[in-house]
Design brief:
The protein has one domain. The chain starts with a helix and ends with a helix. By secondary structure, the protein is mostly helical. Helices cover 79% and strands 0% of the residues.
Length: 255
């Protein structure tokens, strides 16, 4: 893959010097900082807002524990953050073609395969660093607010979601290589997410396919058990296949 290292440097520099360095990390840090406090003080907030009318509801709500903080983190990852990943990376390849950057770069003796693989790899690592940082902040905040914070449920939940997030970066890489519209790729990406979520209701797919990662983060964060080894393995294999397919599709496109 001629030019792979150069493309990695280019993509890393673009992340550091553009809005990308702020959006996902900023979102994750906001959820990481506020999540433990929301989990701990939601009953008090409901009581203060609802007054006497909320008294009966508060009696039915169990006392918050550190697992509620973890569940808050997992909920934000599986919903808001994943949707953001789908929307942001809908233009991962197509935006370069529209802006003319791809033409300038790929007229040199470098390969289109390196261009696509470097993008998928750098942004997967970027997501991984942001998720690890956010999980560390959540862990520390939970220990501060609740006085205890066992790491197992939190980290198993976060790592299972990370494999799912990398899968969707790969999906969006392929869609962006195939389509010229960021909005179109994002729309299809959201549809794929809906299909995978529904497929996760079928037990064989839950056990052995990436569909098992759709709900696993929430289950693990709550202290439950979920067999995630095969879903994570198959998710990473499928991610590699999708990126390879994106590289092949990009070769057939006119710049």
């Amino acid at each position: 893959m001629s030019g792979f290292a150069a493309f990695v440097r280019k993509e890393t520099t673009e992340i550091l010097r553009t809005w990308r360095i702020w959006v996902l990390p900023g979102m994750l840090l906001m959820f990481a900082v506020t999540g433990p406090f929301l989990a701990r003080y939601t009953p008090e907030i409901i009581g203060a807002v609802g007054g006497s009318q909320a008294a009966a509801l508060l009696k039915a709500i169990p006392k918050p524990t550190y697992l509620d903080s973890y569940a808050q983190w997992a909920k934000n990852l599986t919903q808001i953050v994943l949707f953001a990943v789908i929307i942001i990376y809908g233009g991962l390849i197509s935006s370069e073609r529209k802006s003319g950057t791809a033409v300038l770069v790929l007229t040199k003796p470098v390969s289109r395969t390196a261009f696509v693989v470097a993008k998928a790899l750098v942004h997967s690592l970027f997501l991984a660093l942001a998720v690890v940082l956010g999980t560390l902040v959540t862990w520390g905040g939970t220990a501060l607010v609740f006085g205890t914070a066992a790491g197992g449920p939190l980290w198993s939940s976060a790592m299972s979601w990370l494999a799912f997030g990398v899968l969707f970066i790969s999906i969006m890489t392929l869609l962006s290589a195939l389509l010229g519209s960021q909005a179109g790729a994002a729309g299809i990406g959201l549809g794929v997410f809906a299909i995978i979520s529904v497929a996760g209701l079928w037990e064989p797919l839950t056990k052995y396919s990436p569909a098992g990662l759709a709900n696993a983060p929430m289950v693990l964060a709550a202290g439950g058990e979920s067999a995630i080894l095969w879903p994570m393995v198959t998710s990473l294999v499928v991610s590699c296949v999708l990126v390879a397919s994106a590289a092949w599709a990009f070769k057939t496109k006119e710049l």
